[in-house]
Amino acid sequence: MTPTLVRQHLHHAGPTSPADLSARARDWSEIQERMLVPLYEAVYERLEVAPRTRLLGLGCGSGLALLMAASRGAAVTGVEPSSPERLALARERLTPMAPPTAPGTEGARARAARVRLVDGPPRAAADGTDPADPSRAAYDLVTAFEPIGCLAGDSEGLGELLADAVPLAERGAAVVLAGWGPPERCATAAVLRVAAKLADPTRGAGSWRPALRDDLEEVAQRAGLAPDGSGRVACPFGYADLDSAVRGLLSTGLFDAAITATDREQVDKELTEALHPHQRRDGTVWMPNVFRYLIARVR
User: Fold this and answer.
1) What tens digit of pLDDT does each residue of 207-235 get?
2) Residue 135 is part of which domain span?
3) Quick check: is 47 in a domain?
4) Where is the region Disordered (predicted)?
5) At what angle do helices 37-46 and 64-71 cross, to 10 degrees?
C-alpha cells in the first residue's frame, strides 16, 4: 500500500457513508480543531507570519490554521487530499461571500486572490504566484499541522505529502511538522489506548501506537530537510461534556481502526468510560496535553 493510500485509509477506515463523513468533518471543525490553536499561534509568532508570507498548508482540514495565517495578511494555499468534507468546510470559512457587484468588491477580490484551496495532492498547488509580486513563484512556508506519532503509518503518509510539497518551496523555506508530545505529558494518551485495545492487532496501518521522541526528525530526514529548531506547546483538550469529547476525539480518525475491528457502539462505550476520570464536577472534560513542532529548512 502506497503512503497516500495509507493516509486515506487512516481517515476513512471508520465511517464511510456520506452522512457519517460529513457529520465527522463538522465535529472536527466545531469541536476538535480549535484544540490546536495554541500550536498554530506559537508557530506563526515564531516564524513572524505576515503579509509577505506565502504559506502552503498540507492537510489543511477545515481551514482554521489557514484562516489564522490569512488574518495576519499571509497569502495562503490549502491542500486537503483525503477529506473532501473538511475541505468543503474550509471553503465556507475562507471564501469571501460578497457578490461581484457588492460595495468593496475590489477588497474582496484581493482577499480571494490570496486564499486558495486545492482538492488534490500538493503538486496541484504548484502555481504559487503571489498576485502582488508575480516574481515570487515559490512558497516560503509549508505547514503540516496534523499531528503525527499516534498511528502506525502516519509518518509515511506525511512523507509522501512532503515529497510533493518541498519542490514547490523556495530554498531556505521553513517546513513545519507537528506531532504528539511524550505520552507522559499527554493526558489524552491514556484515552487513546482504548483505540489500541479495541483495534485488530493484525491491521498494521491505522492502529494506535505511543508517540516516539524522534518521529518528526525522522520524517524531516527522509524528506531531505535540515532541522532548524523545535518547540513544545501546551494544547489542552477541553470539552463541554462527555458527548462532545467523544464526538471530538472520534473526528480525529484515531479510533477508525477500533471502529472497524469492533463497532461504533462498543468504541463509544469504552471511550466514554476512559474519559470519566477527566470529567470535572461541572460536567466539562479537561485533558492537558503537550504537542511538539519541528522547523526544518529546504536545502
Assistant:
1) 566 667 788 999 999 999 999 999 999 99
2) 3-187+204-237+289-297
3) yes
4) 1-22, 92-111
5) 40
Angle at 219 between CA 213 and CA 221, to 5 degrees: 105
In a domain, 98, yes or no: yes
* Cα angle 192-203-27, degrees, rounded to a multiple of 5: 45
Instruction: Give me 194's grid cell.
Output: 482504548
**Cα separations in angstroms, 137 against 18, 122, 131, 140:** 37, 15, 10, 10
CB-based contacts of 92, cutoff 8 Å, min separation 6:
none
CA–CA distance, 149 with 277 (Å, rounded to integer): 24
CATH number at residue 45: 3.40.50.150
Task: Find out whether 178 and 171 touch, Cβ atoms under 8 Å.
Answer: no
Q: Is residue 263 part of a domain?
A: no
Quick: pLDDT tens for 97-147: 334 444 444 444 444 458 999 988 899 898 755 555 555 558 999 999 999
Which is nearest to 217 in space by CA: 174, 262, 170, 177? 177
Strands 75-79 vs 115-118: parallel, antiparallel or unpaired: parallel
Task: Write down the residue that cell numbers 470535572 correspond to.
Answer: 280
Q: Is 282 a member of any domain? A: no
Domain count, the chain: 1
Average pLDDT of the residues in 262-291:
97
